[in-house]
Amino acid sequence: MYREAIEEYRKALELAGPHRERLAGLARVYGLLGNTKEARRFRASLEEAAQQGSVSVAEMATVDLALGEKDRALDRLREAARQGRLAPLTAGPEFDPLRSPPYAEFFRAAAASRAGTVR
User: Rounded to an integer, what distance in angstroms lies between the CA atom of residue 28 and that of residue 118?
Assistant: First the structure.
């Protein structure tokens, strides 16, 4: 399944050029496959695009998570929250690694903040 995803992302890159969603998708798939070298290469391309503001923090965090870098992903999300740039997080499975302790507290606090119930 992952190999087919890589082929499809690569075809999309060839046909339509680099785009944040394609780069993030490839980085995630490579990370999930354990090919950290390729995942980090595509993450570096994303980080360059992020400097121009065209990549969301959530996209970057999902790449970090695919690489098993939970702390880095959480640091990105916390910084975005401090800057008021954290979009509502989805319930997508890509964030599941952060839904257990000690990371889960961030999600509870973010949800409470959006609901206006921060204590």
Answer: 33
